[in-house]
Inverse folding.
């Protein structure tokens, strides 16, 4: 089992990580390029995807919503914080992460801005914490001294769990005794079943696969804490936005259109479209996980709201990232999403 990280140590961990990222941003600021263009005038946008799955930019491209954009895949990534760090340091042009991670990176000095929602939680698609059927964990206090698997520190699952425990009346000392274990989503289900961890956070196809096998019991859903919400955003570097306002508009609006397309078409049609995208790109992937697809969870044209950031204010205070109330408008803009501004 991997090393356990206690909630009490996360502020120091986050601070150290952000210091490294801040230095990386500074070191590449003079050498990074806002974007590159092809001879036909199309703007190259480098991004990371996920194996055996399709994200909203890929769907938008396939639907014809990214005219003038040359979307270039540079690899896969399962960590939101790492995704937007890569964007901030010019390793990619487009990244996606949980809203709290976006705030963290900007507070560290990264010149990035969120332009459209990237994922969300609703009744069909959400982050859920599971335990084994025979687990004694049934209420918040039962988590004291227990281990919880999350895919990365400083992201969605950690923030939801921390907020839930605090709302449930646990003291800071008690919360510090809840141990977080970083595991890739592909390993979390087995870790719960084998007893390597007491609780594990699962979403999307990993959650659906686990449920299909039986033997696990739901402990907590993020929608039980917050209701339906957009949890993360796609970000671009500020220099990219300044140099390529029309490409930025095409990206933000196209991704918003793709989210709307997925939410307004029946599941079978969406799955067939996603399957065709995977097959056409020829990366030797499996389309089998698509049978577990439920939704992208993104609502209202991918428009970003103040509450998408403000709901994490207490957690951001507790982890020492910001002091006092945050100003959501400092971290995002809907200016380039024509659907969000009614154009």
């Amino acid at each position: 089992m991997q090393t356990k990280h206690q909630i009490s140590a996360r502020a120091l961990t986050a601070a150290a990580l952000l210091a490294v990222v801040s230095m990386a941003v500074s070191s590449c600021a003079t050498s990074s390029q806002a974007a590159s263009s092809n001879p036909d005038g199309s703007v190259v946008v480098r991004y990371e995807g996920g194996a055996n799955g399709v994200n909203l930019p890929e769907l938008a491209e396939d639907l014809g919503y990214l005219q003038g954009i040359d979307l270039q895949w540079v690899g896969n990534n399962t960590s939101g914080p790492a995704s937007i760090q890569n964007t901030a340091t010019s390793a990619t042009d487009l990244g996606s992460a949980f809203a709290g991670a976006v705030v963290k990176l900007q507070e560290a000095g990264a010149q990035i801005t969120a332009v459209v929602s990237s994922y969300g939680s609703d009744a069909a698609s959400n982050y859920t914490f599971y335990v084994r059927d025979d687990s004694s964990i049934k209420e918040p206090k039962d988590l004291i001294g227990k281990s919880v698997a999350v895919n990365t520190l400083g992201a969605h699952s950690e923030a939801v769990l921390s907020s839930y425990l605090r709302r449930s009346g646990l003291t800071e000392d008690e919360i510090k005794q809840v141990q977080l274990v970083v595991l890739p989503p592909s390993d979390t289900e087995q870790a719960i079943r084998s007893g390597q961890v007491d609780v594990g956070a699962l979403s999307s196809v990993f959650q659906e696969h686990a449920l299909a096998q039986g033997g696990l019991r739901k402990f907590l859903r993020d929608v039980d804490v917050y209701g339906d919400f957009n949890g993360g955003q796609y970000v671009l570097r500020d220099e990219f936005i300044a140099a390529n306002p029309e490409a930025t508009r095409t990206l933000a609006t196209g991704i918003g259109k793709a989210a709307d397309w997925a939410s307004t078409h029946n599941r079978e049609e969406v799955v067939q479209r996603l399957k065709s995208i995977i097959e056409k790109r020829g990366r030797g992937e499996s389309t089998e996980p698509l049978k577990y697809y439920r939704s992208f969870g993104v609502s209202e044209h991918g428009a970003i709201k103040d509450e998408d950031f403000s709901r994490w204010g207490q957690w951001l205070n507790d982890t020492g990232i910001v002091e006092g109330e945050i100003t959501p408008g400092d971290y995002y803009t809907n200016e380039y999403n024509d659907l969000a501004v009614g154009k």
User: Anything to note?
Assistant: Residues 116 and 302 are 5 Å apart (CA to CA).
